[in-house]
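Would you mind writing out the residues of a protein together with its fold in token form for me to study?
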Amino acid sequence: MMIHDFLVESAQRRPEAPLLVHKGTRTSYGEIEASSNRCAHLLRDLGLRRGERVGLLLPNSARYVVSYYAGLKAGAVVVPMHQATDARSLRKLMGDCGAVGLIGGPGTRERIMKATEELPDLRWVLLPADELTPGDPLPAHVRGVPESAEDAMSAEADPRRRGIDLDRATIIYTSGSTGRPRGATLSHLNVVANTRSILAYLQLTSEDRVLQVLPFPYVYGKSLLNTHVAVGGSVVLHDNMVFPETALEAMERVQATSFAGVPATFAILLNRSSLARRRIPSLRYVTQAGGGMPLPHLKRLIEALPGVRIFVMYGATEAAARLSWLEPEMLLSKLGSIGKPIPNVELTIRRDDGTEAEAGETGEIVARGSNIMEGYWGDAEATAEVLDQHGFHTGDLGWRDEEGYLWVAGRKREMIKSGAHRISPKEIEEVLLEHPAVEEAAVVGKPDEYLGEIIVAHITVRLEPAEVRSGPAEVLSESQEVRGEPVTPNAIRLFCQERLPAHKVPQEVRIRDSMPRNPSGKLDKRALREETAG
């Protein structure tokens, strides 16, 4: 079974059913299947060989889905990149994996032209016709191909190259906590196995419709696509969360059965929309992954969605994406847990010497399963740091209870070493979020001459839903008013002093307009640490 077989089989069963809904336009399985066949034939006509890398620089759209499955059908290793990737980063990522082709979308022309200057392996660039004009400064070895060239290709002839599920399917770049891009290399087996496990516990059917706000290049976003295509369901694209109320309106309009988000997504909905007051009858379940959701937010989400099943999930890009899930029925009794391993995954807690920890003992979470990557592309050293005989070392510290439920204590590299104490930022962040004015909280360590590190808390304040604002992610001067009440750094510290031991109380509190985020919408702790240290 190959990833693209999900599309082929669903298109055979339900050719007229909508695969995508975007801006009022429905694109059926049959249409996506035919378009991906034409695109795959073109890629093969351009000389693409099995195992060669092809980059995608496209927004969430039908074009992205067509290109993704076309690349896989043609035998390529697909390398998705976020739509906002700049020319410098594009050049770096494409050069690292030795991509021979690049499929770009609207508005990418200038960045692509700049990036191709130093890519000796690149042979062709596929762009919308109006993005590719005579005289474009492409290097002599790079061929510019208009998207319209696909029209001359066959939609009926099967373009699939023969392969096996151990073949590489995709490289997903993740900066992790180091800031250095590392390409997690995933096989068809990795993705197919993980997709099947997710289907088993979510119990998806062809009647499911997910409202998708997560970008496809993000492994969580890609998982939503693959799982729904596997059962013949629908993916409804919603472009952004700048105006969260429109996401709720879209859920009602299309009768979405599910919604997926990272902690920041739900923080926005809880604090800047009418989620707690609105009922969406079609909504069957929501999923949350991409980092632990603070308990105060999770409790509010449970209250805001009565009767809706809430799946808390845990995973990693290197695991294609999912490792564990918590049954909605256990959400209250195991509040804060990441649950148990998904089908066909083994999770253990390991001490520093590699031995397995006892129940209640903290160690590193280590994963085994057919969904675990083969390694980081071209980086044997980084691969050896995380893969050994025990499996994939997640970098997360955790423990398990007597019933086998798992809990995350924090990231190994995010632990703050202050004096004689090792302090988890997670505990402090959850206390900060108990303050009625705090919307988001992020705690990092700042180098200190005497203690090694001091604790610095960054917070944003809660706004009324109508007060959604935009602006630079700057630190506000001294205080901020919420509903007429001043919120000051000192007031936040006093709040913490009443709830935390003295050594866990932040020495600094910085009130911000917004938090730095990566392209997937997750809070960027690395950027925050660099800013704090500077």
